[in-house]
């Protein structure tokens, strides 16, 4: 028995100026991972591919992995990037001889000229092989199109945000395929969406409105539904089908799938006002943080979250933290490869003055990002490599490239050369910083920070900074999403 396993994951922010060439999928490797190197990198990790590998080994299947590629969110992938990644999968499908195909995808990937990259891959795959069972695991932020659903045998999504059940979603999808191959079940699926763009800051599964919705999905699966997924969507993709959707898979009972699909969608729609985030001005939020004596207080620079396609180089929140003279602060992070090189060249222990961040223009939000002049001592220089130890992507290797820590006296600023959302405590421990000893921990994150830092936070302050992951939809010029859609339009 032979199974084809593949991973192509990218969450596309169509407002982001960060380019997405093929090299962005290398993640510190000399090329995209494939074959035994991919299996070694992802086996026993909290990843969808890790779940696939576990079931394939249990079933005694020979595994072929033509590609295992993932990139931090950014702007649309180049047409060449999309084509080369698809070709790695499609060429292997063309060779044939597979009993199952298991794809670990994102669901919100956009390429130049292709607003549904995953659907494009699946449609072309089915033109080659219309019959082999295909499992698809998608991120909770997937924007679902019909081509994704109609060309898959089963689709599973995450039930947590932060995503700490990625492996579990892979296991569910692979187990459905294993049972299908044995003739035990005949999966059927139904999907639909609602005209709503939930704010990402309201999507965490630690609280309503998303928590009860995802709990209902788990109840349905515990009751015999093969897979029940609510995809909250990725609103920073200005594409037709962006927004919240539901996909339900049952054993041969399409009416049941449709009934549960509608139940989930109605639950989300009826509480649509709860999915709207209301930002506060920056200066008062920093002042409020300054008055808190017991740390660590987590401050979120969520308008510039690289995990949603932010440039990770805007400085508005850092500038306000410095202006109001908060003490004993760590700031993670500014992505500025040149600043990292300059600090490393100066050497550990040296005091330098640099122009930090503000290198990438953001025409989509019509708001400038200015470099910030910072003077501080170079405290640490290292290669930026660490393994996740927390519940999200546990065991997966991260590589932020040349990384330095600059200490201003009040604020320790981590400067990285590659994008990385801070969702694991090792991003700081690897840089020689213990967040438990800090009064303030400033993170360029929205929700994923909770995976590694929520247990230690005494309070959380959400800071309105500058960036293309803005929580103010009024800053974004939506041209392609279907209208009317809530909350862009009154509904």
Keywords:
491 residues; alpha/beta; Rossmann fold; eight-stranded mixed sheet; 19 strands
Would you mind describing this structure in some detail?
This protein has 491 residues and is of the alpha/beta class. It has 13 helices and 19 strands. It has two domains: 2-275, Response regulator (Rossmann fold), CATH 3.40.50.2300; 282-470, no CATH class. The strands form four sheets. Strands 12-13-16-17-11-18-10-19 form an eight-stranded mixed beta sheet. Strands 1, 2, 3, 4, 5 and 6 form a six-stranded parallel beta sheet that branches. α5 (146-150) links the parallel β5 (134-138) and β6 (154-157). α2 packs parallel to α6 (166-181), α3 (79-95) runs parallel beside α4 (117-128) and α7 (210-222) runs antiparallel to α8 (254-270). Residues 299-480 form the Microcystin LR degradation protein MlrC C-terminal domain.
